[in-house]
């Protein structure tokens, strides 16, 4: 059961093109697993920005004088994240979490490749730590548009058996996209399992490459959200179930982590006609 807490901002610091914010949030760390996210109220009590903003959890500290903290990393995107970037230590922040379903971990010590795009690498770093604890081999691929939009390189160096970096502009690492280097990483590390988080187009490319080799792939999607708790249906996307049928599934409650080969990437943003319960041509009278 997620908690709602009003905690103080403990720190906000610039990391390349992003902001990393740590908030006092007693109770949330103990419930958090890699892949969970928080929903943060923006704009203050008088704001017309009623919808919370979702951020993947990067780090939690369960103990210490603050009784538990949560850290997340964000890019300034629109009004809500601009407001958030202007918060200062000791400002109050209302946070709900942990939300969503986390990444599922393998039972055995297998070989795992993690693929992060931009700030999407943030939830993969605690995942890397959890996988290492289980004895997995962990190869990490980080991609970004440019060097300042790469997140988590030092963590990845500490946690990964190998780290491969790509940037679109070649300002750091290999020029190009993560999909250019992934086949080589899969072969070298004999990957059994892939986890990925980042822009939707990247998730799809990673998922397709994994599917070509029949490697199971978990993707953490970033579908637009409103309530974050399963009520409004804003965040639905078409996902194929174990029975082969497509359903519109809420990414805030049933996700944000899905099996990549179950997401109908071509039909994102639509309700495919063969979806269970879809209104078919002719419709109702
Ligand atoms: C599960 C999840 C995890 C996320 N993790 C992170 C993270 O770790 N770091 C980070 O920087 N961003 C993350 N995002 C995206 C972040 O929630 C949006 O960038 C943010 O809501 C934009 O708010 P805004 O007011 O600045 O922008 P606006 O464009 O003004 O937002 C208006 C509305 O659109 C929604 N929205 C806009 N862009 C997005 C988007 N990309 N994804 C989802 N909803 C969007 C907002 O929630 C808001 O309701 C995550 C989104 C989800 C769903
Ligand atoms: S955001 Fe409201 S149901 Fe998912």
Give the SSE layout.
Layout (H helix, E strand, L loop, with lengths): L2 E13 L2 E7 L3 H4 L5 E4 L12 E9 L7 E6 L4 H7 L6 E8 L11 E7 L6 H10 L3 E8 L8 H7 L2 E6 L6 E2 L2 H12 L3 E5 L2 H13 L4 E4 L15 E5 L5 E5 L6 E3 L26
Parallel strand pairs: 7-8, 7-11, 8-9, 9-10, 11-12
Antiparallel strand pairs: 1-2, 1-6, 2-5, 3-4, 3-6, 4-5, 12-15, 13-14
Helix pairs in contact: 5-6
The protein binds flavin-adenine dinucleotide and FE2/S2 (inorganic) cluster.
Overall description:
The chain has 285 residues and is an alpha/beta fold. The protein contains 6 helices and 15 strands. It has helices spanning 28-31, 79-85, 124-133, 153-159, 178-189, 200-212; strands at 3-15, 18-24, 37-40, 53-61, 69-74, 92-99, 111-117, 137-144, 162-167, 174-175, 193-197, 217-220, 236-240, 246-250, 257-259. A hairpin with a 2-residue loop joins strand 1 and strand 2. Helix 5 packs parallel to helix 6. The longest helix is centred in the last third of the chain and has 13 residues, at 200-212. It is globular. The N and C termini lie far apart (41 Å). The model has no long low-confidence stretch (mean pLDDT 95). FE2/S2 (inorganic) cluster is lined by residues 225-228, 230-235, 250, 252.
């Amino acid at each position: 059961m997620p908690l709602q807490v009003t905690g103080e901002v403990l720190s906000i610091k610039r990391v390349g093109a992003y902001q990393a914010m740590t908030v006092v949030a007693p109770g949330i760390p103990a419930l958090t697993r890699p892949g969970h996210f928080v929903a943060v109220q923006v704009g203050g009590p008088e704001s017309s920005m009623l919808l919370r903003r979702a951020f993947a959890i990067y780090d939690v500290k369960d103990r210490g004088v603050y009784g538990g903290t949560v850290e997340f990393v964000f890019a300034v995107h629109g009004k809500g994240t601009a407001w958030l970037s202007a918060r200062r230590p000791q400002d109050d922040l209302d946070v709900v979490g942990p939300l969503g379903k986390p990444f599922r971990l393998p039972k055995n010590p297998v070989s795992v490749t993690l693929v992060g795009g931009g700030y999407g690498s943030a939830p993969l770093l605690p995942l890397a730590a959890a996988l290492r604890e289980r004895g997995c081999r962990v190869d990490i691929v980080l991609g970004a548009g440019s060097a300042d939009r790469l997140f988590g390189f030092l963590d990845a160096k500490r946690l990964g058996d190998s780290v491969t970096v790509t940037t679109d502009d070649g300002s750091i690492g290999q020029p190009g996209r993560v999909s250019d280097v992934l086949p080589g990483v899969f072969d070298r590390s004999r990957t059994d399992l892939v986890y990925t988080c980042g822009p939707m187009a990247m998730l799809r490319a990673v998922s397709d490459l994994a599917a070509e080799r029949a490697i199971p792939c978990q993707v953490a999607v970033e579908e637009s959200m409103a309530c974050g708790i399963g009520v409004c249906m804003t965040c639905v996307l078409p996902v194929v179930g174990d029975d082969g049928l497509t359903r519109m599934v809420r990414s805030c409650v049933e996700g944000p982590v899905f099996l990549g080969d179950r997401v109908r990437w071509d039909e994102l943003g639509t309700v495919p006609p063969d979806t269970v319960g879809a209104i078919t041509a002719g419709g109702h009278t």
